[in-house]
Fold this sequence. Notes:
Helix content of chain A: under 10%
Mean pLDDT of chain B: 92
Low-confidence stretches of chain A: none
Distance between the termini of chain B: 41 Å
Radius of gyration of chain B: 13 Å
Oligomer: heterodimer
Number of helices of chain B: 0
Low-confidence stretches of chain B: none
Shape of chain A: globular
Mean pLDDT of chain A: 91
Helix content of chain B: under 10%
Shape of chain B: globular
Amino acid sequence: GAVVSQHPSRVICKSGTSVKIECRSLDFQATTMFWYRQFPKQSLMLMATSNEGSKATYEQGVEKDKFLINHASLTLSTLTVTSAHPEDSSFYICSARIGASTDTQYFGPGTRLTVL
Amino acid sequence: AQSVTQPDIHITVSEGASLELRCNYSYGATPYLFWYVQSPGQGLQLLLKYFSGDTLVQGIKGFEAEFKRSQSSFNLRKPSVHWSDAAEYFCAVGNYDYKLSFGAGTTVTVRA
């Protein structure tokens, strides 16, 4: 089946630094990738939709200057949390979709970000 | 706007017993409905989905779900639970663009 990886799985950083999280589709080309944020014991909240070669579309309330998304190729999307603060600590999950009109998303295992 | 409610935060079930997880959705048009399972260290895995047609949907790992439009529900069931079914389960509704809105999840604990 389709596999999506995320790197790193865990990251701890100091407040004020930037952190980059990678999302890769390993055995398929993903025209669309999604970035979610999950708080403990809560639902996944969609942050943004990333289409290869174009600017990401952010959901309402998500700061695009804080959460920079780049979808440089059909197999890689990156999320950079800029000037991270403790309130940015969370579980970040990406998913990838094969086609524009395909319903199925394949999810990565997530990245645990802790900002000290 | 679409939304999903999973009323049960945590369910404990004995191995071999049946399991039902509740899901209620709010969506103006015909919904696309999904159930995902999340195990520690693994990505969300799709159990089953409903778009149209037969309202009883069969999925992987012996799960099934029934779409009831009149009740705005899409409950997940399994006749006999195995210890490996212990996980977090998420119901999701998708729009025409397949953007997903997730419920808060239900944690399933399986006791021997």
